[in-house]
Structures are given as structure tokens and as C-alpha cells.
Amino acid sequence: MSNPTPKKQAVTADLGYDRSEPLTAPILANIVGILVILVVVIVAVSFYYNTYTERLVEERQLTPVSQDLLDLRAKEDQQLNSYGIADKAAGTVRLPLSRAMELVVAESKAGTPKYPVAPYAVKKVEDAAAAPAAPAAAPAK
């Protein structure tokens, strides 16, 4: 195989790099145009976002509450503020919330609460660290 040598071409003005200066007016016009478009897009997006969030706030806060929600709240208020039977078989009744709070305060003042209040020792970090760790499970064979 022969190794052909590339043909040498004569160096002329047609070969080589462009020796002319770039036109600055079109370049600057492109830069200014891009910046103007960028500013317009930013303003448009922020305007759209602000109007959208305002509309959502109006929809969520100014729309009337549904009748189902009003009925649920009325039922809950009735249950919290009235007497009733909670479980007939167990013999438990429902007290109004304000009356139940009054009874708990009266029990506390009298020193006879009906719920467990046995004192217990507060655990210390040293006690927890000194306690032996639970043995790890043996690996299955």
C-alpha cells in the first residue's frame, strides 16, 4: 500500500480565516432584543402567578361553606354541649364539655381524681445506659 501525500494547495486570500471585523450593530441589537424578551416573559409570568393566586384565595376564602359542613359542625356542637347516652350497655353517658371540665377541676381541688395518678420515678440517662441490652436473636441455620 502506498501512503499518498496530501496535495498542497497554494495559500491565497480565499483560504484561511475571515479577516473582517464583526458587525457590532446586529450583535448589540440581538442582545437588546433577547433582554427585552426576557423582561417581558418575567413580567408576564409574575402577573399570571399573582392573578392566579389571588383567584385561588378568593375561591377558598370567599365561597360560602357547604351545607354538609355546616350540618357536621352543628352535630359536633350538639354532641359537645349536651347530655346524652354514649353506650347504653356499658352505662356510660356523655356530659357537656364545660361540665366535664368543671368536674375535673373540682376533683383535682378535692384531691380525689378518678384516674390513675400514682407517682413514678423519673428515669435518668445513667440508669438507661447501665441497663443490659436485650440479647440479639440468634441467626437461623
Question: Please, could you describe this protein's structure?
Answer:
By secondary structure, the protein is mostly helical. The chain has four helices and two strands. The protein has helices spanning 24-62, 67-80, 97-110, 125-130; strands spanning 84-87, 92-94. β1 and β2 form a beta hairpin. 0% of the residues are buried.
Strand pairing plus helix content: what structural class? mainly alpha
Radius of gyration: 42 Å
- The share of residues in helices is 40-55%
The parts where pLDDT drops under 50 for at least 5 residues are: none
Strand content: under 5%
Describe, in short, the structure shown.
This protein has 141 residues and is mainly alpha-helical. Among the domains are: 22-63; 67-113, no CATH class.
Task: Looking at this protein, list some descriptive labels.
single chain, 141 residues, mainly alpha, 4 helices, 2 strands, 52% helix, elongated
Write the layout of secondary structure elements.
Layout: H1 24-62, H2 67-80, E1 84-87, E2 92-94, H3 97-110, H4 125-130
Antiparallel strand pairs: 1-2
